Amino acid sequence: MEYFLNDQQQMMRDLARKIAEERILPVRAELDEKEEFPWDIIRELANSDMFRIFVPEEYEGLGGGCLDLCIVVEELSRVCSAVAVSYAAVDLGIIPLVQFGTHEQKQKYLPDIAAGKKLAAFAVTEATAGSDASAIKTTAQRVSGGYVINGTKQFITNGGEAELYTVIVSTDRTKGARGASAILVEKGTPGFTFGKKEKKMGIRASATRELVFKDCFVPEENLLVREGMGFIITMKLFDKSRPGIGAQAVGVAQGALEAATEYAKHRIQFGHPIIAIQAVQHLLADMAIQVEAARSLVYATARTVDSGVKEVSKESAMAKVFASDVAMKVTTDAVQVLGGAGFMRDYPAEKMMRDAKITQIFEGTNQVLRNVIALELRKSKSR
Amino acid sequence: MNIVVCIKQVPGTTQVKIDPATNTLVRQGVESILNPFDAYALEEGVRLKERFGGKVTAISMGPPQADKMLREAISLGADQAVLLSDREFAGSDTLATSYTLSQAVRNIKEYDLVICGRQTIDGDTGQTGPEMAEMLGLPFVAYVSKVEDAANGTLRVQRLVDEGHEVILLPLPAVITVTKEINVPRLPSLRGMAKSKSAQIPVWTAADIEADKQSIGRAGSATVVVKTFSPERVRRGQVLQGTVEEQLEALVGKLKETMII
């Protein structure tokens, strides 16, 4: 399919694919097995300027948009979703800063992010606040010159590995969602420590950890915009970032489709390769249709985000929901095509199936996102 | 430290075809790649620049299409690149190639170190590096597996030999060839790729490098490829009979007969 990528986007895709195939593929099974954060690969990505893509040009980035990120995430996820997530979570961590930060805040943090010297993370989820982001209990109390943060964030991607955290805190518990604020916290700030590292079903090489704040003082210049903007910042962030999850889903589905096709060409049963069997052919054909449809929707949505239109909640929710459901279906079918081998950890299909599942859950479960889509439908004027 | 890295475009396949008329490689229709050994040379040049400052110039003698590979060299960290291309260079053997490259290095003037890969994967001779050193009248170390340090106009390197490593100190300017143990070449960067697209890559002809016409191309080649063929593999095994002593006797006799010992 022709997606009319420009020269720079083709270059990004080629380079991301090269990194994925030459550097990630040989170690992906080991990374998954050991649940080890892929620092060597992060460094390769940094050296290849991949972290510059989503940083504005004035802060030593390449000023790329949502589609540029999606292209890279898809290529990385095609080989290993855990690496793709670790990469994309850095973008997630800095989008609020890029969108809402002051020049001083950006100047302080973004050049190091662009160079890949420091990673970033975004933290909203808590034990009692997931889909209901307004239920956060982590507080930031106003004191002279700054805020004192108390509380625990959980399931934070890049937790422990990142240097910069965009944390959603409550600055006024009486106001609920309107009392939420976004604040930048650096690793190493006294009172800021990391809790347990989660053991996960998939994307196991990525780091998922608790952030623990105990009387953690953060200077006031770390606040994004002003108090009470936390919830809006979060919603705007997810509108922009969800196509990236869609791209992660497309990538893992593409990888699974390729693995299944390759296996079907070489697996001989009843005297011929199983790809000659119509039941298998139709399975593969359906997988291919779904992957391409998901890619089309994700790219179109990313272009919509890049066009600068104000309201993209519905579109980005649709791209994320559709692509992640496709990823789950296609990776499950890939395991089926590989049969017994698909169930074995020596083959890549089962990892892809495990890795795909999270795309239906994080950055808004597909159920909550269907609510978002339905809400937009209800709000729309009848013609 | 200013470094010149000599690189070559080679067929990116093992399915090489030989032109029956000229007995040289058919390059048309075959994807060309940067000679893998030269990638180590380029990477080492870029690393030395990063350690000690200076700049890296990649040079290659080849057809106009080699421009693509030189741009790749820039995306991998070379500061500039020069293509040596002229019909007069055609048909060069290693002697003529070494002469041409040496003239180009002379033309660059400001250089402290010339780095080559240990050999190419098409010609496989490993002669160009040492021949260049001879022609430039510079100290030379082959099979460098590590550059330890550069200080006070000298270079401290390790050379891979059968028994281990030799540590050699040599004055600069110098020529070295490197092995694949020396580093892991980096992948290109997006900024490097963008730079490589817009880079100006000058083409130097025989006249530009003041080359002696009798020393370049076919005229300057001391060797002619008469025939290129895949050798027939003949394996003849022989099982020695008798007691251990008798077998030993027979074995030693065979080895002496074939002048192995």
Summarize the helices and strands and which ones pair or pack.
The complex is a heterodimer of chains A (383) and B (261).
Chain A (H helix, E strand, L loop, with lengths): L6 H18 L3 H7 L4 H9 L18 H14 L1 H20 L2 H12 L5 E4 L15 E5 L2 E12 L6 E7 L9 E7 L5 E6 L10 E12 L10 H37 L1 E2 L2 E2 L4 H29 L6 H26 L1 H4 L5 H9 L8 H14 L4
Parallel strand pairs in A: 1-4
Antiparallel strand pairs in A: 2-3, 3-7, 4-5, 6-7, 8-9
Helix pairs in contact in A: 1-4, 4-5, 4-7, 5-6, 5-7, 7-8, 7-9, 7-11, 8-9, 9-11, 9-12
Chain B lengths: L2 E4 L2 E3 L20 E3 L1 H17 L3 E6 L4 H10 L4 E5 L9 H15 L4 E5 L10 H9 L3 E12 L2 E8 L2 E8 L2 E5 L11 H9 L4 E2 L39 H14 L4
Parallel strand pairs in B: 1-4, 1-6, 4-5, 5-11, 6-10, 7-10
Antiparallel strand pairs in B: 2-3, 7-8, 8-9
Helix pairs in contact in B: 2-5, 3-4
Could you explain the architecture of this structure?
The complex is a heterodimer of chains A (383) and B (261). Chain A is of the alpha+beta class. In chain A, helix 5 (81-100) packs antiparallel against helix 6 (103-114) and helix 7 (230-266) runs parallel beside helix 9. The mean pLDDT of chain A is 96. The relative contact order of chain A is 0.12. Chain A has helices at residues 7-24, 28-34, 39-47, 66-79, 81-100, 103-114, 230-266, 278-306, 313-338, 340-343, 349-357, 366-379; strands at residues 120-123, 139-143, 146-157, 164-170, 180-186, 192-197, 208-219, 268-269, 272-273. Chain B has one domain (3-215): Rossmann fold, CATH 3.40.50.620. In chain B, the strands form two sheets. Chain B has a nine-stranded mixed sheet, with helices on both faces. In chain B, a hairpin with a 2-residue loop joins strand 7 and strand 8. Chain B is globular, with a radius of gyration of 21 Å. In chain B, 38% of the residues are buried. Chain A binds chain B through residues 7-8, 11-12, 15, 18-19, 22-23, 44, 47-50, 52-53, 62, and chain B through 186-194, 197.
